[in-house]
Amino acid sequence: MSAHILIVEDEEKLARFTELELLHEGYAVQKAFDGRSALEEALKNEYDLILLDIMLPGLNGMEVLRRLRQEKNTPVILLTARDSVMDKVAGLDAGAVDYITKPFAIEELLARIRVCLKFRAPSAADRPAAEEEGILQWGSLRLDDTRKTVRWDGQEIILTNREFLMLKTLLENKDVVLSRETLLDRVCGYDYVGETNIVDVYVRHLRSKIDEVYGVKMLQTVRGVGYVIRSE
Ligand code: CA
Known about the structure:
Elements: E1 4-8, H1 12-24, E2 28-32, H2 35-44, E3 49-53, H3 61-69, E4 76-81, H4 85-93, E5 98-102, H5 106-118, E6 135-138, E7 141-144, E8 149-152, E9 155-157, H6 161-172, E10 178-179, H7 180-188, H8 198-214, E11 219-222, E12 226-229
Parallel strand pairs: 1-2, 1-3, 3-4, 4-5
Antiparallel strand pairs: 6-7, 7-8, 8-9, 10-12, 11-12
Helix pairs in contact: 2-3, 6-7, 6-8
Calcium ion binds next to loops.
């Protein structure tokens, strides 16, 4: 059965565009154009995911999320305006699983939706045995988030904190192309003020410590979009 997604967006053109893209991907889609009807629909129906704009007439997105959370745990991805750092933090605190900054590339939104739906009901049965608590793997690479170590076939790779965070973020989002801006937020913190090309610098460091040493192409550049680590 296809996943059922509610789009909450008062800009009707954007809502319509997003709807068409999601329908094209095979999702079942419903739209709401204001906070109150969104909350009503979200409480009445069982959605697999809600895309929730923050700036809405009537009830804003944060309030919708807050009230929804009193009743149920439907996964929510927030649509935030650029630079609204507080919204992002508050949104994640209020129980959103992710956020995406407007204007967004539709590919990034689709990738985030796939990730979100993939993790909606992780059953122990379909999780690989090697996937232990806090362990992320790619080929012979093993990142242990509890011990903060990265090893290749048992051999330790020494990374700085930010290189480690960057690698972890990419491994946690395998097959999702992450924009420089997203990586910057995750690696340097929401309040970092500076150039996004610092991300390219960390990618270069990681490549020289991993890809070049072990002769692999783990960290891939997606031109004009960002970076991705794909499943082997
Ligand atoms: Ca809006």
